[in-house]
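Hi everyone, sorry if this is the wrong subforum. Our group has a chain we'd like a structural model of before ordering constructs, and none of us has done structure prediction before. Sequence below.
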Amino acid sequence: MAALPEDLTEAVSAYDAANLAWGRYWRYVLRPAAQAPDAGAVRAAFGEAALAAPQSDQPEEVLAFFDALATAFQALEALLVRLPEELRTGDVLVAPAALREAIAALGPWVAGEGAGERRG
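Answer:
Right subforum, don't worry. Here is the predicted structure as tokens:
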């Protein structure tokens, strides 16, 4: 398998950081909390993004990853709105920025006409 282009590697690495932050938060803060809102949509979206991580630079793989990242970001943002203030801490505050970084790294692949072909 050929190595992924640098921007795709950066996107996957940023997603990995977001996923790690989310996982720690869910395991050590949210899961043990007595009054935690349901986080099933976030967990599912992060799982889908992991499965969608591109194995090549084929446009359909990159676009599927982009869509999965956007879904994970939206689910996480929706959860943040519902979190009690005492649960808005640590890793859950880091994960959205890492997802934004992953999405931004894919910008050249999804921007403009002919989406799915890297610009540049």
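For your construct planning: The chain has a mean pLDDT of 91. The radius of gyration is 15 Å.
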